[in-house]
């Protein structure tokens, strides 16, 4: 398939959308071969099927993840990135993003996994990993504390106390501030704050703990008939768009 196409796929997965000029620029930074935007464009057009298999679509001069195109959000997503620098990992790390489900398992992710594995899953590493992958996805795409705690509820987690809720919230917020985001061109909120000295971090919600504690399933039994919680699509569930692919 060629290294240039590997870069196209990896950078699209890392950024959500990327201009062909940026693909050429990053490729040339990390390789002896020098390519131009036209070379990238030509090679991409010769591998449209392969790009499609990896959730990458061509849109004008951009390579765009199909999730953005599926919901017709290209212009909104492009606007979010204006004026932000690009996170460019070393080649070995960058090419890991060719796998659409790859993400960097940060120390914050590992801290959350250790906690849930010990306190909620009797040391079961697999169950802890599955839950933390769901929460990682929540932090990456439209973070909502309500949805995070729905992930806990779906896995049958019952919190013992308000203090435990707060401990988990702190771990989740630490994770959310250290997740690589499409809208930040791959930078985490923490990294972007350090670079720009602007308040980009998600604060720990002061009132959310009390709201969450009052929900069924947290410190009490869940009543499915009265709960009325909208079903959320999990990371490994089929996409609601009807494509048959994983969400």
Descriptive key words:
3-stranded antiparallel beta sheet; 3 strands; 247 residues; mainly alpha; single chain; 4% strand
Describe, in short, the structure shown.
It comes from Lentibacillus juripiscarius. The chain has 247 residues and is mainly alpha-helical.
General description of the model:
By secondary structure, this protein is mainly α. It folds into 2 domains: 3-98, Arc Repressor Mutant, subunit A (Orthogonal Bundle); 107-227, no CATH class. 51% of the residues lie in helices and 4% in strands. It has a 3-stranded antiparallel β-sheet, with helices on both faces. α2 packs across α3, α8 runs antiparallel to α11 and α9 (125-140) packs antiparallel against α10. The longest helix is centred in the middle third of the chain and has 16 residues, at 125-140. The radius of gyration is 20 Å and the shape is elongated. The chain starts with a helix and ends in a 20-residue tail after the last helix. Residues 212-233 have low confidence and may be disordered. This is YecA family protein. InterPro entries: SEC_C_motif (IPR004027). Residues 224-247 are annotated as: Disordered.
Biggest sheet strand order reads 1-3-2
Level of helix content?
A: 40-55%
Q: What is the overall number of helices? A: 14
Described by strand count, sense and barrel closure, the largest sheet is: 3 strands, antiparallel
Helix/strand structural class: mainly alpha
Name the shape in a single word.
elongated
Q: What is the radius of gyration?
A: 20 Å
Low-confidence stretches: 212-233
Number of strands: 3
As for the number of domains, it is: 2
């Amino acid at each position: 398939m060629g290294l240039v196409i590997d870069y196209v796929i990896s950078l699209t997965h890392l950024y959500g959308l990327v201009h062909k000029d940026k693909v050429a620029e990053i490729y040339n930074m990390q390789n002896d071969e020098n390519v131009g935007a036209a070379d990238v464009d030509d090679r991409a057009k010769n591998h449209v099927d392969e790009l499609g298999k990896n959730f990458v679509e061509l849109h004008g001069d951009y390579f765009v993840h199909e999730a953005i195109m599926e919901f017709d959000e290209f212009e909104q997503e492009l606007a979010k990135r204006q004026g932000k620098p690009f996170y460019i990992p070393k080649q070995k790390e960058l090419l890991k993003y060719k796998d659409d489900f790859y993400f960097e398992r940060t120390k914050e992710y590992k801290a959350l996994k250790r906690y849930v594995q010990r306190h909620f899953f009797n040391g079961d590493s697999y169950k802890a990993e599955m839950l933390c992958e769901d929460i990682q996805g929540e932090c990456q795409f439209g973070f909502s504390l309500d949805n995070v705690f729905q992930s806990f509820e779906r896995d049958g987690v019952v919190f013992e106390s308000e203090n435990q809720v707060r401990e988990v919230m702190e771990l989740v917020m630490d994770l959310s501030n250290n997740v690589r985001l499409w809208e930040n061109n791959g930078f985490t909120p923490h990294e972007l704050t350090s670079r720009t000295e602007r308040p980009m971090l998600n604060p720990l919600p002061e009132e959310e703990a009390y709201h969450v504690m009052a929900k069924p399933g947290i410190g009490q039994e869940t009543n499915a008939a009265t709960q009325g919680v909208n079903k959320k699509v999990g990371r490994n569930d089929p996409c609601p768009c009807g494509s048959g692919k994983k969400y």
